[in-house]
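Notebook, bench 3.
Goal today: get a predicted structure for Phage tail protein from Escherichia coli so we can plan the truncation constructs. The sequence was checked against the plasmid map this morning, with no discrepancies at the termini. Length recorded as 559 residues. Pasting the sequence as submitted so the record is complete.
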Amino acid sequence: MAETTKERLNKQFAQLESERQSFEPHWRELSDYINPRGSRFLTSEVNRNDRRNTRIIDSTGTMAARTLASGMMSGITSPARPWFRLATPDPEMMDYGPVKLWLEAVQNRMNDMFNKSNLYQSLPQLYGSLGTYSTGAMAVLEDDEDIIRTMPFTIGSYYLANSPRGSVDTCFRKFSMTVRQLVQEFGLNNVSESVKSMWESGTYEKWIEVMHSVYPNIDRDTSKLDSKNKPFKSVYYEVGGDNDKLLRESGFDEFPIMAPRWEVNGEDVYGSSCPGMLALGPVKALQLLQKRKSQLIDKATNPPMVAPISLKNQRASLLPGDITYIDQITGQDGFRPAYLVNPSTADLVADIQDTRQIINSAYFVDLFMMLQNINTRSMPVEAVIEMKEEKLLMLGPVLERLNDECLNPLIDRAFSMMVRKNMLPPPPDAMEGMPLKVEYISVMAQAQKSIGLSSLASTVNFIGQLAQAKPEALDKLNVDQAIDAFADMSGVSPTVIVPQEQVEQARQQRAQQQQQQQMMAMGMAAAQGAKTLSEAKTSDPSVLSAMANAVSGQGGQSQ
């Protein structure tokens, strides 16, 4: 008997589960000490409010992780400013007015769609997981109301596999849904018999384990356009349901799971290093240091006591202002501390501060909080900008991987969904069949380009200084190209820069106007000269008449 789809997927899931087991102890430790509620290794943990931060005394690591997630959100994909723009592979095509306007219109519609969806609520969670566990995952799904709907996955709830290119192309996710949610999402006829009976008996809020698998549809029929023959297959089924029954079998045109990794070692599927992993040792040491400091202070303020044997089973008090009666006849020293502690916490505090600095450095807190931590009021603006750009360059490798594994697929999928829903204006004829490319213009992306900006600005300033002594030096500067290059690296809207054909047309009109003005000026000068000559006081005939007669006389002699 041939195995069912559910049996085959369960077999593949068991292999992925076995492969992931070596990562789980490290993830659990990171969760315990840095992000207690950022993991979910069991589906039974859903909607539970158990206290999970019992190992955290000093929350420096947790706050550093929060700063990293917030800083990446505001520096890479801030909803408050444009962070990407569309362009054509041919730079000359970008100078064509209709192409500029169309790309700007598409970009604005995509930004509106992102703002309307829950993307900007999911990205901080993705960045937080990426920074602490080196792996993050988020589903980008179609939605009837908001066009797209994103769903961030907690670490421990999903299982990944790579394509031959080393990018993630397979994702299994085990999660929980209530009986009511299952019936509303998949329909009563598609759920298992046990779920049907729960629904009919009114047990709506009982949690049921569900598996969702997305993987390449290798055996698809490319001649068919139905959902089961799309490039990626999507299957939902109940983990404990009927053996051959699926909740839904469909597909995706693009891989819907964005699964970026902070750093990957060789052929590994999951991330191998990240700020959280670097900071884990100092975070654990910090808890011990804080515990020892508290114990030292506690022994000084509430020391262990010694007392004569006569006080055994007698009333003794350590309360302020209270009295404990002691029999001094026995010659005992009375009720006193067992040993005197003179707490010197300076060394401990210094060690704690040093450990906190290491944790903050691992999480790039000094980068994101630079303007707050450094007194920049006495510094020139240029120096502050250069310092900030230099620090932002530290995230360069991470940004490149994030673009490749998350932002590029996100924009490609969003663009394709808008095309399928006819939400974009028709492109200019010149762009028919032309692929588009994505350029990132966020704060951090611009920091990567700031070196080119500084070089261009210094070159233009150098030529300007030379031109003061040698004006012909300006002939060497292509002003149009300098403006276009500066605007491109600055990330300003393409509509701010006038297209080259309009510039040429305006220059021709200006040249024609100047030529007409020169001709008019020459005509007025000639007329003024004639008027001056005619009014000159000379003997009769006038000078003008004499000149005319002289000319006519010369003409007669020549005949």
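The first strand starts at residue 84 and ends at 87. The radius of gyration is 38 Å.
Flagging this for group meeting.
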